Amino acid sequence: MSSSPPATLPPVRMKQDAATEAVRTGVADGTSVRRLAQITGWSVGWVSELAKEFRTKAELPAQQSRDELDALQECIDSLSGLEDSARRRILAYLADRFGTR
To answer: For a tag on the chain, would you pick the N or C end, based on fewer CB atoms within 10 A?
Structure first.
């Protein structure tokens, strides 16, 4: 008999006013859109648009998505099995693509 991981309950969707305030606070704290969506139970698209609106109103600079950075780190971590020259070529491409060095 195989053991499967325990089922997780879907997040409870906050009422819109509470979710809006959570997103406003999260934007100020630098919380990722994905994390805010998990916390509030609302879609990533809804949270993303609201966060963008709050950043604009507060004249905060647009920030690179933390989700994007996490995905990039996962990609980099997966390169550990490659030869050094192949890894360097891929990392150079990603640095050019994401504007970092």
So the answer is: N
